[in-house]
Amino acid sequence: xxxxxxxxxxxxxxxxxxxxxxxxxxxxxxxxxxxxxxxxxxxxxxxxxxxxxxxxxxxxxxxxxxxxxxxxxxxxxxxxxxxxxxxxxxxxxxxxxxxxxxxxxxxxxxxxxxxxxxxxxxxxxxxxxxxxxxxxxxxxxxxxxxxxxxxxxxxxxxxxxxxxxxxxxxxxxxxxxxxxxxxxxxxxxxxxxxxxxxxxxxxxxxxxxxxxxxxxxxxxxxxxxxxxxxxxxxxxxxxxxxxxxxxxxxxxxxxxxxxxxxxxxxxxxxxxxxxxxxxxxxxxxxxxxxxxxxxxxxxxxxxxxxxxxxxxxxxxxxxxxxxxxxxxxxxxxxxxxxxxxxxxxxxxxxxxxxxxxxxxxxxxxxxxxxxxxxxxxxxxxxxxxxxxxxxxxxxxxxxxxxxxxxxxxxxxxxxxxxxxxxxxxxxxxxxxxxxxxxxxxxxxxxxxxxxxxxxxxxxxxxxxxxxxxxxxxxxxxxxxxxxxxxxxxxxxxxxxxx
Length: 498
Description:
mainly beta; Neuraminidase; 5-stranded mixed beta sheet; 13% helix; 34% strand; disordered N terminus
């Protein structure tokens, strides 16, 4: 007995006989796993879809939504006889990708003046195109074919400004030394030259072009702070993106304007830079012909390198920064004594770890208050602002982006209903810049301008002249659109009351 028992025990290191697993049991186990998986998946989907949020659920202001079906073609616009509260017309729709327009208004002596719209024929880069409108954006010319040859190769979205009329809505603003504003409409166009992946484009500063005759003729691009400058100076070329996102005329200590404009741009690391454009000489020859010499200062970090604001801006991806000169602030406002002549920055927060950002300077951009977050109602990209009247009411156009997930299982952390405009007072804007949310006043209303929710839209030009507002942006506004078009929206500046 003892011998038999010993023989039945395997020697050390001898493999044990494998036990055969019943196939039926495997099937049962897999079935149970599948049932659990389906149940868990259904539960998670139920959580996802019953918890879905849209951008509207985060807004506090009333929203005026313009329907997508009221956009006129170019031919329909030519036959338009008036009567609509909002007039939306197609500026350009070639069937290929076009986007990122900017606009400038020109006093050409006519009742409406003239709007120039510029945009790249491509995604953020490509040939610069220009069209004109003589009826505040209802109808538009064909693309101009007499533009500088160097504009064919633009590395970034062009920006355009009228320096004779000023960039703040203040009738006192504009180039000092101009004797006849209507005759000498001076415009500048800037286009950054950043690095672009999968192309031959490298960081190369920014291009600058100008016109002394209301945009009828333009100089060829002149490069500033690019590779040639870097080679001569031993420094690195600037990686300028959306140059200049804003261009703000600066003032002297006595409140008078001087021939300097603060331009802002950013780079791929979200360093925000300022550079000062100076009209070094403004003169007329014996025949009355205007001549201006220009200079751009070497760009420096707008918040001061290594400062708390500088680090905060980079951490949250501050970029495409709009600058608003405070104007029309009521003397009874709690902000009047400190901010009556301040400059306010509104910036995109590209990392989507915060809302859009705001900061204020009371010393012409030398120093800045701590950066704060804007409310959801002003949250988005590429803010562009203009005053509606002398009482400080203004409109801010932007691409709505709210840094929240649509649902708990969503991969993307952003929501947006498309191209929006905020309407309120400069006092409302200033209320967001302090440390006390109890002081916040939200503004008056929001306008969903595009009528087509999409996250690829909203870079726009904003014009307010003679009681009329014109906004020009890009997006997938037309039904079934495969590529975006450029669209114009025109309405009365008094639409929202006094």
